[in-house]
Amino acid sequence: MNKFSKMTMKAAVVIQILALTLAACAGAGVSADNAAAPMICRATGDAAHPYEEVSAANDISPVPVNGCPASAVTIVNGKITICHATNSATNPYNEIAVSVKGLDGHGVHTGDIIPAPEGGCPKSLGATGNGMTKICHATDDAANPYEEMTVNSADLNDHNGHPNDIIPALANGCPASLAAVSNGKVTICHATSSATHPYNEITVSVNGLNGHSKHEGDIFPAPEGGCPASPVVINSNDKITICHATGSKKNPYNEITVSVNGLNGHDKHQGDIIPAPAGGCPTK
User: Fold this and answer.
1) Looking at 90-194, which runs of residues are DSSP E strands?
2) What is the pLDDT of residue 63?
3) Are 97 and 78 spatial neighbours (Cβ–Cβ below 8 Å)?
4) Distance CA 222, CA 227 (A)
5) Surface-to-core class of residue 176, CB atoms within 10 Å of its CB (0-12 exposed, 13-18 middle, 19+ buried)
6) Helices of type H across the chain
7) Residue 190: strand pairing partners
8) What pLDDT score does 214 carry?
9) Per-residue DSSP letters for 33-69?
10) Beta-carbon-side half-sphere exposure of residue 45 (alpha carbons within 13 Å)
């Protein structure tokens, strides 16, 4: 056998060994991308079936300080999108992509939101300081349309899937009537410093309210009849006085005090006067 034939045989043997090795890896659940997404044996806690073979592609390690996400994380090229908390009141979060492995150190940042909500990062800071955020969670109860609750960043993404949830909660509490959310936006009355034009009717993102959740004097949501033409006097309990139309000719209005947030549903009453005139409600 000549030298060339011997080299050819050796090459064939090497190729066969490589083929067998790859086949063995495939049988063990290792793909060509095994460096990025290896298979692992995960403990189940079940004595009868103590381990399950799963892909580590979607694992988040180490566990973020606020716990594991409550919904599946979208991983692109080994990275996930998070909201990194800044020290800026006007721009409280930066939306950034970080490695899912180690989270580039962001797993220990208590103010960060992991992963970023589907609707984008909040435009105002709603965290309580312990990685927790106060939100207004929409209920199915017409009498109490919102429940103010505190959630951690891991659960926040679930609430972003609720179209009527308000994240973060308003500074002066949750609305007393359900806000109409359209394409992730709501209409509010933004208080100005003008006596002749006290409010601007604007549409803002329900996610963060473009910072208006902390504006004293803003009316959320805007009444169906439009924003008031005169300044509303809001008392220390965040309530305003209105004239509620009764339908009675003898006593056409009742003067009542309601929450400025949602106006207790009176924003949808066409005959109501919001706010009540300085001299009191009309008698005719």
Assistant:
1) 93-99, 132-138, 146-152, 185-191
2) 75
3) no
4) 6
5) buried
6) 3-27, 153-160
7) 200
8) 67
9) TTTTS-EEEEE-S-SSS-EEEEE-TT--BS--TT-S-
10) 0
**Between residues 67 and 112, the one the model is more confident about:** 112
Q: For the chain, what percent of residues have pLDDT higher than 70? A: 69
d(CA 172, CA 262): 11
Q: Bridge-partner residues for 61, per DSSP?
A: 101
> Do the strands 79-85 and 93-99 form a parallel or antiparallel pair, or are they unpaired?
antiparallel
φ, ψ for residue 207, nearest 5 deg: -85, 90
CA distance 57 to 38: 7
Cα-to-chain-centroid distance, residue 262: 21
Q: Give tens-digit pLDDT for 209-226.
A: 767 766 777 888 888 778
d(CA 102, CA 121): 21
pLDDT tens, position by position, 30-42: 333 334 556 777 7
- Alpha-carbon torsion angle 77, 73, 212, 272, nearest 10: 140
